[in-house]
């Protein structure tokens, strides 16, 4: 299976005083606010780190569900929090915190399956991907 999803960001002004928006193809985000305050302080809107946390927690949890199903387990509830740490201009850590309710599974099998999901989740592997850039100056 191969597909491409897209999102768009627009920014006007300087890094500190400017403002921007982010929109997704699905329109779940539709001109969501982006600014210095939403990224580095507590402003209304979103930021790249929060979006990475959302993508990672969603991807990991879905991957885990697939792996559990393949092993014959039906998860009743999987809840994952992803914490993205931004430090001195770099994302230095992503902490995944998982709580699950899976009838009939042992602690050991759940731990092993969650570890495998972390390793093979596409977002976990993201930094090992090819990144291309196309630039247009108007």
From TrEMBL:
Name of this protein: OsmC family protein
NCBIfam families for the chain: osmo_induc_OsmC
InterPro entries xref list: KH_dom-like_a/b, OsmC/Ohr_fam, OsmC/Ohrsf, OsmC_Ohr_Peroxiredoxin, Peroxiredoxin_OsmC
Pfam families linked to this entry: OsmC
Organism from which the protein derives: Flavobacterium chungbukense
Highest rank taxon of the organism: Bacteria
Region of interest called Disordered, as start-end residue ranges on this chain: 1-23
């Amino acid at each position: 299976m191969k597909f491409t999803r897209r999102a768009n960001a627009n920014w006007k002004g300087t890094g500190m005083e400017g403002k921007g928006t982010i929109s997704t193809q699905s329109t779940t985000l539709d001109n969501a606010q982006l600014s210095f305050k939403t990224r580095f302080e507590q402003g209304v809107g979103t930021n790249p780190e929060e979006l990475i946390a959302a993508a990672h927690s969603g991807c990991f949890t879905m991957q885990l569900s697939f792996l559990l199903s393949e092993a014959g387990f039906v998860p009743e509830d999987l809840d994952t929090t992803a914490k993205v740490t931004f430090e001195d201009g770099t994302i230095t850590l992503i902490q995944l915190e998982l709580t699950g309710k899976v009838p009939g599974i042992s602690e050991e099998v759940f731990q092993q399956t969650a570890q495998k999901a972390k390793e093979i989740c596409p977002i976990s592997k993201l930094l090992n991907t090819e990144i291309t850039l196309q630039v247009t100056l108007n």
